[in-house]
Design goal:
Blueprint (H helix, E strand, L loop, with lengths): L9 H18 L28 H12 L2 H11 L1 H5 L1 H4 L2 E7 L2 E6 L2 H22 L6 E5 L24
Parallel strand pairs: 2-3
Antiparallel strand pairs: 1-2
């Protein structure tokens, strides 16, 4: 038997497979270093850039200005920061109800407090203008407590009231 005719040994088969794998690996292009996520970063220098993490307040401010929500946030600030705007003593005895067309409706807990707030109205309006800015609140309408009403909605019909349906 010649060496070509003899049966292949397991070590010869393994050696041939290893040689074929090395040849296939050498013919493939070398893998490059992959980026895990995101675009290629350009360094901005010592100060934080736009793609760096930002404080939440700055992001909210940029969103409000981009969406043009400044007027809505000022209106919300009147209701949300009422105690800080008018002071805790006044805020303990009155609450803002509605704000429409520049008129803020404030409900006082008693008629005495309603009278006091009417006298303080120019001072309260000055504070609101200074701290909120703009012409969000132009008039202040103060009302005292009211008795319960059977009326529902802005319009009503004169009549005998709730007894009207009984008979």
């Amino acid at each position: 038997m010649t060496p070509d005719e003899r049966p292949a040994r397991p070590s010869d088969i393994a050696r041939a497979a290893l040689e074929a794998a090395r040849a296939a690996s050498a013919s493939r292009p070398r893998p490059t270093r992959r980026r895990i996520a995101g675009p290629r970063r350009n360094w901005t220098g010592p100060r934080p850039g736009e793609d760096d993490p930002q404080p939440l307040g700055r992001l909210v401010d940029s969103l409000v200005s981009a969406q043009d929500w400044t007027e809505h946030t000022r209106v919300g600030a009147v209701f949300g920061r009422w105690s800080a705007l008018v002071g805790p003593d006044i805020a303990a005895h009155c609450t803002p109800q509605t704000l429409s067309e520049g008129e803020l409706l404030v409900v006082a807990e008693s008629t005495a407090w309603a009278t006091q707030l009417r006298l303080l109205a120019p001072t309260i309006l000055g504070r609101l203008r200074a701290q909120i800015g703009g012409d969000v609140v132009t008039r202040l309408r103060v009302v005292g407590p009211t008795a319960p009403s059977w009326k529902k909605g802005p319009r009503s019909v004169r009549g005998r009231g709730p007894r009207d349906t009984y008979g």
